[in-house]
Amino acid sequence: MTQKDNPEILIEGVDFILIPSGCFMMGSSLETDEQPVHERCVEEFYMGKYEITQDIYSRITGKNPSHFNNCPQCPAEMVTYEDTLAFMQIFNNLYSNSHHLLFALPTETQWEYAARSGKSSAYPWGEQKPICRSTSQRGALFDDDIFCDEIGTYAVGKFSPNTFGIYDMPGNVWEWVQDCYHGNYRIQKTEEPFITPECNDMAIRGGGWTSNPTSLRPANRNYHSRDGAANSIGFRMAARRFPPEKTPNPETKSFNGS
Asked: Which comes out higher in pLDDT, residue 144 or 134?
């Protein structure tokens, strides 16, 4: 059985879901930086089923910078964008060649495509705002004074997954993506990550435990300094296959000789 046949794979405790290729309408008319709404097409890729936990982060890097560090299955937070690149470098060095996969942060396009999971509505479950209840199909961890009056993150996977089977894309912690943040989609023409040498503000997606409901929409965008960290920002991994005859370059996220 090839990697292509596997809808779900597990590597060193990281569960990956195979996301099918397809096209979708990216963005929304609600905020300026979500405009214009436009079509994007995505090739098949793997997405982390859960946000990277403190347990996995500490096993790979040997450290746990998280503020809420008494919860091994809670998301790793207080990680900078640069920390995520260092994590990916180690993970690629350990597992890329043996699995014929190149691991990286998802691009903004991949992230929104996976978060929408085939839906065009405001939220993955429909138009209704989220509710902080694990028994609800629209459940998510965010700043909800009614049902979530606790301070901090939850263990990953407590709330219902989306149609693709991915957990916590709305809420819990914001998630770093590969792209530089930009004020609208008019300057980003392709699916590939938008990165410039002078870029300091990197895009984050999904909202977190301190966020309002609007921030949990798949189309919502935010940013944070690449060398800054917060207890409401973490990350998840993405991966794509590479042909066995080609050697991936984890630093440039490209293939040597392609």
From this structure: 134
